[in-house]
Design brief:
Length: 270
C-alpha cells in the first residue's frame, strides 16, 4: 500500500468514526443527555435557535461527498488532496473527541479540542486555496463547498464554545453585560465575514454566518439588543455575499485558467 492509498484509507476510517460517534451521541444518548440539552443549560446570548443545528446534516453530507471523492483511484495523486496530508483525519478525530467531552461536561477541555478542530480546518482551507485556486465544478462541490460550510460553522461554534466556558467559570465579563458581549461577538464575526468576502469571495462560508445570525436573532428575540444586533449583522453579511458575488471572476475565466495548465501544488501559507 503506497502512501497515497494509506492517506485515502485513513481519511475514510476517520470520517466513519466521527459519523458513528455523532450518531450515537444523541441516539443513546451519551451520559444520558442530548447535545442541544447541554447547550441550552448555559445562560449565554451567542446561541442560535435549535433548528439552526440542522446544518450538521448538510456538513456531514458534504464530508461524505469529500470522503468518497478523495478515495477514488483517479484522485489518488491529486496534488490539492495530497497537500492536505492527515489534517482531515485530525479534524475528524477532534470532532469525535469534542462530542465525548461535551456530553461528559468536561467543558475546559472542549475548548482545547474545538481550537484543534478550528486550526485543522483553517490549515485545510489554506492548503486547498479555496476561493483562490481554479477548480472543476465537481471538485468545487465535493471539496471546496464542504470545507467552506464546515469552517463557517466551526467559526461560529468556537465563539459559542468560548462564551459557554466563560459562563461555566462564572466570569463577570469585566462588568460588561452578557447581551453587550454578544453584540461584540457579532461584530467580530461580521468583520471576519467582510475579510472572507474580500480575500476569498467564499459565498458558502458567508451563507453559514447568515444562517447562524438569523438563528441568534430568533433565539434571542426576548433580548432586543441582541436580536436587533443579530439582524443588523445578518444584513451586513448578506451585503458581504453580494460583494463576493460581484467580485467573483466569471466561469469562463476559471475555465480559461484551467485550460492553461493544471492546478499548482498548494502549500500551507501563514
Amino acid at each position: 500500500m503506497n502512501k497515497d492509498t494509506l492517506r485515502q484509507l485513513v481519511n475514510v476510517i476517520a470520517l466513519v468514526g466521527a459519523l458513528i460517534v455523532n450518531g450515537l451521541a444523541n441516539a443513546l444518548p451519551l451520559n444520558g443527555k442530548q447535545t442541544g440539552e447541554i447547550s441550552d443549560s448555559f445562560a449565554v446570548f451567542f446561541v442560535p435557535a435549535g433548528y439552526v443545528f440542522a446544518i450538521w446534516g448538510i456538513i456531514y453530507i458534504g464530508l461524505i461527498a469529500f470522503g468518497i471523492y478523495q478515495a477514488l483511484p483517479s484522485q489518488r495523486e491529486n496534488p490539492r488532496l495530497r497537500s492536505l496530508g492527515y489534517w482531515f483525519a485530525l479534524s475528524c478525530l477532534a470532532n469525535g473527541i469534542w462530542i465525548f467531552l461535551w456530553h461528559y461536561e468536561l467543558f475546559p477541555l472542549t475548548l482545547v479540542v474545538m481550537l484543534i478542530l478550528l486550526v485543522s480546518l483553517i490549515v485545510i482551507y489554506q492548503r486547498l486555496r479555496i476561493g483562490q485556486a481554479p477548480v472543476s465544478a465537481v471538485e468545487r462541490w465535493a471539496v471546496n463547498v464542504p470545507f467552506s460550510v464546515y469552517l463557517g460553522w466551526i467559526t461560529v461554534a468556537t465563539i459559542a464554545n468560548v462564551t459557554d466556558l466563560l459562563e461555566y467559570w462564572g466570569w463577570n465579563g469585566f462588568g460588561i453585560s452578557g447581551p453587550v458581549w454578544a453584540v461584540i461577538m457579532l461584530a467580530v464575526a461580521s468583520a471576519v465575514a467582510y475579510l472572507m468576502a474580500q480575500t476569498r469571495r467564499d459565498v458558502a462560508y458567508l451563507l453559514v454566518l447568515v444562517w447562524a445570525f438569523i438563528g441568534i436573532a430568533v433565539k434571542q428575540a426576548g433580548t432586543p439588543l441582541v436580536s436587533i444586533s443579530a439582524w443588523v449583522a445578518t444584513a451586513l453579511v448578506v451585503g458581504c455575499v453580494a460583494l463576493a458575488r460581484l467580485a467573483r471572476p466569471s466561469g469562463g475565466g476559471f475555465a480559461r485558467r484551467q485550460a492553461a495548465g493544471p492546478v499548482p501544488h498548494c502549500g500551507f501559507s501563514g
